[in-house]
Design goal:
single chain; mainly alpha; 434 Repressor (Amino-terminal Domain)
Length: 82
């Protein structure tokens, strides 16, 4: 039987103002889709530990990996200079 993935709480704000808040959004979207970290990492072409670091908001994670994961989950990062 497949592992049941508990949906993470939706972040309070849609604004991304830190790597931690971006990681929270990615975690929420992954769990909303019912995907385990292992499944999602494989789909994104990264290893489990890298995805874990992204979701925890580790500031040492490569930005390219973070953007690729966000893209895979359909997240858009928009620059608003208003």
């Amino acid at each position: 039987m497949a592992k049941v993935v508990k949906q993470a709480q939706k972040p309070i704000s849609d604004a991304i103002n830190s790597v931690k808040s971006l990681g929270e959004h990615i975690l929420h979207h992954r769990t909303k889709l019912g995907m385990s970290r292992e499944e999602a990492a494989s789909l994104c072409g990264i290893n489990y530990k890298t995805l874990e670091n992204i979701e925890k908001g580790n500031p040492n994670t490569k930005i390219g990996n973070v953007l690729e994961v966000a893209k895979m989950f359909g997240l858009k990062i928009i620059i608003d200079d208003k």
